[in-house]
Structure formats: C-alpha cells, structure tokens
Amino acid sequence: MHSKKIGKIFASVLAATLASTSALAVSADKTAVVIGGYATDGLKVRLETAGYAVTLAAQPTGVLSSLGDFDQVWDLRFMDALSVEDNGAYLSYLQNAGGLFLIGEHAGFADRNNSLVSFITAAGGGDVTYAPNSIETQYVTSPFNGDAVVVADSSTPVIVPSAGTVATPGNGVFITTSGPDGTGVGTGVAFGAGSLTNALDGRLLTYFDVDTFSSGTINNNAAVRALVDRMISFVAGDFQADPDLGGSGIIDTSKGEFTLADAAAQGEAVTFDGGTLSMTGGASPDVILSNPIAIQDGGAFINTAGVASTLSGVISGDGGLIVQGQGTLVLTGANNYAGGTVIAGDSTVRVSDGGALGIGGLNLMGGTLAAGADFALGTNIQLAGGVANAIDTAGHDVVLNGAVSGAGGLIVQGGGTLTLAGANNHAGGVGITGDSTVRVSDGGALGGGALVLSGGTLAADAGFATGANVQLLNATGNLIDTNGHTVELTGAISGAGGLIKTGDGRLNLTGVNDYSGDTQVNGGRLAMNGTAVNSSFTVNAGGSIGGNGTVGALVVSNGATAAPGNSIGQLTAATTVLFEAGSTYEVEIDATGASDRLVASETVTIDGGTVQVLAAAGDYAPRTSYAIIVAGDGVTGTFDAVTSDLAFLTPALIYASNGVVLTMTRNDVRFADVGVTFNQRSTAAAVDGAFNATSALYNELVGMNAAEARRAFDALSGEAHASALSFAAADADNVRRTLIGRFDGPAGTGTEMWTTVTGSWNDIDGNGNSAAVSGNGQGFLAGVETDLASFRVGVAGGYTDGDARIRARGAQADVRNLHVGVYGGGAFGKLRVRAGAVHTAIDVRADRQVNVVALSETLKAKYDGQAAQAFAELGYAMPLGNGMIEPFAGINALWLKNEAFTETGGTLALEGAERTRDTIWSNLGFKASFALGANSPLTAQVKGVWQHALTDRATDSRLAFANGGPSFLVHGAPLARDAAAVDASLRWQVADRVQVGVGYAGTIADQGESQSVRLTLGVRL
Length: 1021
Known about the structure:
CATH superfamily of the domain at 714-1020: Autotransporter beta-domain
CATH architecture of the domain at 714-1020: Beta Barrel
Number of helices: 6
Radius of gyration: 51 Å
Largest sheet: 13 strands, parallel
Structural class: mainly beta
Number of strands: 85
Strand order of the largest sheet: 32-35-38-40-42-45-48-50-53-56-59-62-65
Helix content: under 10%
Strand content: over 45%
C-alpha cells in the first residue's frame, strides 16, 4: 500500500450523518459496492453494464474521519459531506484495478451518470480519487492518480495551488461546484501553478459559475464529440484567466479540436483579465473557440504554442490581446476590443477584415500579421526594434491607413500587395520579399531605415522622393514600378542584387551607388543622376535612360531609347556602350550649339538604330555642329538614320575615330510649305517675302518644328481683325431683328415712342482655319413710329458696345456700334408686308499678343468700319382663336466694310487695307400672337425662322507686314450658312397708352450661337 498525507484537508462544514464503514472488503478485480438508497437510481445497472460485479450495501451511519485503514479497492457513494478533524487524514490506494469514488453527488446530476459509466475501465492506473468539499483551501502535495475525480458542491473555490498536480491517467475527470439544475452555490475551480491532466481518452466536464485558470494546465487528449462526450463543457458562467494566481491556462490540442460552439456552451463568455490561454502539444486540426470573449483591463494572453487556433466569437472589452508562441491565431469575429493587439515571439495573427483586430492599435514585437483576404486596417501600428516584424499578404491586397511608428522595421512577404497609406515614421525601414509589392504615395511611408528588396516590388501611387538607403539582396526580381509617376531615390543603393525599373514614369537615382547586380529598364525612364559604376545597365523595349550621372556598361536594346541629361546633359558609361539595331539615341540641341552627349571610357558599338534630334526653339545659324558621342577607345558601326523635328534644318551625322558629330543645316523648305490651313500658308508666304535670313523672326522660325511654326503663323496672321467684323455683323443683326419685331404683335395705332434695352451673348465657333470668337454686348435702341396712310412707319437709333475675345490667338477687340434705321409695314387684306434698313458706324479697338519664341510683342490698332443692312418680309396672316398665325418669307442683305489701319507696338505689326464684304440671307418661318385670355392685357408672341446664306459668308481682311513685303488675305470666324432663330416676347398693356414688353432672341447654328434679352417700354402719344 502507498499512502499520501493530505495536510489540513477540511473542517467540519455540516453536522451531517455519513454512511460510513471502516473497511468494505471487495474483490480487487472489477468489483463495486453500491451503498444505501443509491441502489435504485440506475447506478447498479450502469456498473454491471460496464462489466463490474456489483454488491449492494446498507447505508451506514456516523462520520468517516479517516481512510487510513482501507487496504482494498473500494467504491463509495455519500449523500452528504465528508468531515475529518484538523489533525489530518490519510488516503491509501493500491496499484491495482481502477475504482470510482463519488462524494456529495447532487440529485441533479442523475442525468450525467450515463456519461460517468465510460470513466470506469479495468485499464485504469489507480484506484483512489481526491475529492475535497469544504470551506477551506485544499492542498495537494504530490500527484494523485485515478480514473475519476469528483469535487462536489462547494461555497468557495476549490484551490489547486502551485504545490500539487491532480493527474488522471485514466479515462476522465469530473469537476463540479454548482449543480446543473441550478441548485447549489459554487464559485469555481481555481488552479495555481498546478495542473489538471486528462492524459487518455476521457472527458473534463465542469458545472460552475466561474472557472479561474492562471498558471494551471488543462491537458486534453480526447477529441470533441457530442455534448455528453466532450472534453470541456461550460454549462453556465464564464471561463476566466486570472493573473492573481500567476501563470497561464493551457489547452492541449495534440489530439483534437477545442471548441465551445456546441449547444451547452453557446453564448457563454470567456473572460480574460491578464491571464494566458495556451495551446500545447502536437499540431493537429485547428483549435476553434467560437464563444464571445471579454478582455478586461489586465488583457488577454494567447500562447499559440506552435499550433493553429481560431477565435471566431466577438472579442470585446477595454483590454488588449497579446499573442505569442510561434503558432497561428485566426481572428474572424467582428471585434471591438479597445486595448489593441500585440503579436510577439514569431507568432502569427491572420485576419480577413481589419475590424477583426478591434479598435485599438497593432503592436508587432517579432510577430506576423497575415491576410486571409483583401482588407484595410485603419488603426495605428507600432513596430518593436531588434525583432522581425512582418506582414504576410498571402496573395491578397492589404491597405494600412494608420500611422506606422516605432523603433523597428517591417518585412512584407506573401506575394500580395501592401499599401502604406499612413503618415509613417518608424525607424526600421521596410523589407520586401518574394513576389510581394509595397505601394506608397509618399517616401515617408517607408520609414527612416533602409529599403530592402529581396525579390519584391516597390510601386508608386503618386510621385515621391526618399532619402532611404536601398539594399538589393536578390540577383533578380527587385523591382521599382513608377506607375506613371516620378520617384526619386537620393540614398545609396548597395548589395549584390540587381534592379529592374518598370512602369511608365521616371525613376531618378541621385546617390553614390555600389550595388553589383545588373540594372534593367523595362518601362518608363531611368534618370541616372548619381553613380552606379559596378552595375551593367540594359534598356529594353519601351524603356529609356538618361540623366547626368555615370553607369557601368550600357546596352540600348531594340525599341529602347538613350536620352542623356534631364534636358540637355551628359550621360557617362564607365566601360562600353552598345546600340542595338532598332534602338534610338535621342539628342536634344539648342541654337547656341549645346547638345546631349554620351561619353564612354571604352568603346561605343553601333549596330544600327536611329538618332532622333529634338531641337529647342531658338535663333539657329544656317549650320551648327554638335558632338553627340565621345568614345575613349573609338566608335565602331553606324546608325541607320537620323531625324529631326525641325522643319527648316536638316540633320546629318559625321563619324570620327573617337566620336560622332551631328550637323544641322538650313534646307530649302519654305515657310509656307509647313502650313496646313489657308491662314497659315498665306501668312507664311508673306513672312518669306517680308523678313530676310538676318531678321530675328526668320531665325526664330528656322529653329522650329512644323507644329511650332504653324502656331507662330497663326499668331502672326492678324485674323482677329477679320473676326472682330464677324462679331460686329452679329451685333448689327440683333438691331434688324428688333426693328422687324415691332410688327410681331397687333398693329399699333397713332404715334408711339419706344425704347429697348438689350444684353447679348455671342459665340462663333472656329473652323480649323480661324479660331473661335466669344463675347458679350449691351446697348439700347429708341424709336418713334406712326401711321402713314395704310402703312405704319418708324425711325430708330441706338448704341451698342461689345467685347470680342479670340483666346486662341491672344487677341481681343472692343467693338462699338452706332445704329440708325428706318422701318415700316402694312396690311393688304391678309397679306403683310414689312421692310427696313439700318446703317451702323463701327469703331474697332483691337490688341493682340504675338509670341514667337524670344520675340514677344503687343500690337494695337484702332480703326473704323461700317455696316449696312436692308431687309424685307412678306407674310400671310390667319386668325387662330383669340390670336393669329402668320407664315412668312423674307430676305436680308449685309454690307460690311473696314477702313485702312496700321498696328503699332513692334516689328511684327500689320497694315490692314480698306475692304468690303457682303452676304445675303433668305428667311423662312412663321409667327404667332395671341392674347392670354379674354380681355387680358397680356399678349404673347413667338416666331421661328430658318435662315440660309445665299452668298459667301466669309469675313476676311487684306493685310501686310508694316515693314514691307506682299499683302496677304486671312479669314476670320465665318458667319453661319444655316441657322435656326427663335424670338419670344410678352407684352403687357399697363395702361391705355403704355405698354411694357420683355423678349428673348436666340440663334443656333453649326458655327455657333447667339442669345439676347430685351426690355421694351412703349408710350402712345
């Protein structure tokens, strides 16, 4: 027999009578004694089913105070409490077959007896259980072994402190401190540094209000099955990890899955206040904890212990979550805990939504945040120094909108994309590994440390600059994707790896770099404005290289471009240069003789390709030479072609032993040959005749490409003068419409004086030759009309002032018009006849800005003009309700004339000759007028007209340069060929002799539109 002392076990808690016996001898092999009233509750049948030989015994009386005399295997069942004296007691057990010891079983547990049957097995390693039930703390001084442990109802926690371990290498452990039917008062089972071990295949069933585990251990080997066959069942209350007892609670997952998701446990919260929940043992299926978790101020410590675990319930509370243990913790709930998340000790936390990390910050202390799906995280991130902090994108897109700070750095892995969008200031920099990509819009997002590329990609979402040093670890696969932006790296680039520039946009390298891997430019432009003499540069199709720095060797491939400098500059190769067939050497030049240059210390090999000359505008000499290639060990081969964007200078290449020289020589292309519009060609021909080769204008034009020359000819043309007259014609037409509109309503009687105030807006579209004209005007007309026999006649006069703007030509004109007109009309039955004439005196004050490279002049002119109009209409009036409708046809003619003028302000000034233009239009339409109700003082009028030009619509001017040369013709914005015009007005007979009217007139054509509004007052004398 082996005995263990149980120190001060318990004091008397009840004056209860126990069934007792000093020794009940039974067989040592699968026997059991059922005592007293429990013989009829089904226990006997269940024991027999399990293979036990059952003996029924009467209920003894008295108090069992010592078990020291027992030397046989025994099974006892007591209804009430076990009580001993303070001097202690001994429990004895034998190393033989297993037994069952139930103390203080509550009637409410009767339903659970079925589950207890499976605890009984002949394979058990011991036959004694320790089951205190008292108001005092119980101590276990050394391990106890048995098949089952039952701790019955208790009003205080049952404590297993640091001194002992309850070990059950049998088939199960049953701990209860509160009855499942709600009776009994229990406060929990508390474990200190001790542990509760269920080493084989049984269950741990708990019924209590609160279980508190600090440094104790729950070791589970059984897989979770049904409710009656699970390892841990929380039926009521919370699971709480409490730091007051020290240490951590542990769940062993070596044989299965730990879950609280079944019906008996759903909705029960797991509460942390500083304790640790650990997962130990071998890695098997994931541990899944689906219950809600409440984290108090003390925080929650999760020791993943190298296994995968999932917390799928909602995590809430003010505390934080600390994850460690080199395993993986998956958070899937819509969590809102506020204390933040710490990932430490090579642990991994995987989320598919940023909200799974709660509303606090994220602190990486050597841990990894992994992505289970695309997500964005808005909280701030703290990086600890001296450890490897990682983001594993796992092929997904992750966005960090919060600020990243701290002494540490960040490693990005997993083959996905991480976007750093916050205002970061972490000290440790960023490392990008594998096929991962980091996207930034600001260099500060990379932190204050080095950028390490180990097969990863740095991509730009906006232009930025960074002074961070760069380390290249992989020989290939280190990418910088400028993505259409400008990225500047001013730090030093080092390492044995290479660099690939990809994407549209520009990468500017300004540091003193000593990396030794190859550099490839696969897209956009790489500007080497520093040095990288240990790297061989290859520019592939679609890529370009330039800058004023130094590279190692340089290869310009088919479809690639070398363009030294940032404007005009020099790119140097420390060794050799090769131009492959199909490559391009882009050379910028200017009129002073400066050009791009490529210098090689060794040989330059040219296997074909094209030299493309881009010339800056300037005053070029008839012939200029440029040294565009210098080679220390000579040049071999030639380019296939040389082209230039200059229209009037021809490029040529001269090959020398140590370089290539470009010459630009004036060709025989005339200025007019590059013009594409009438005005350009007409103006260019005049320039050829007015300015010789020594003039400033000539030399500026010679240095232009075709597009620049065309813009210069447009600026020189003076078309604004012709377009100003088009604007005057549109203004004069508004006067015609006002006068003939006097007959749109019911005919007046007697003598009437009237006045009209107008505001107008005119837009005339350009046509490819001339530019668009827009402007507005205002003015007034006044007249008097009276009856004359069967006619009604009138005279009118007025003044309008308009501003015409020709923005594409840098010109504007103030057009002031003085109008005088006569009009009349009469009725012959249903026939209506109307006619009139208007004369307009025009005063034009124009200025235009002419810029031809270095030549810039503001030219002004003031001149007079005249417009004359005659118009007539014939209609047929028909009554319609309380009004009338009248179809009509008409014609109007316009004569437009300008006086001669001369501009002032510079050598590019023009002279304008006196010139007259005329245009005739036909008009076809209808008009209607009607009173708005019987005896209404309001009368409405509406008119629609189709207007068609019968003759030439051009408004042109005959001009010449004031310094001499031939005259030339330019066209202004044309008048419309076909237009739809509408007039609408409302007249109010205020009094017997007073009438007020408002009206709108609009014209829409494919060449533009005009609109005007008017307010009219009429007084009958």
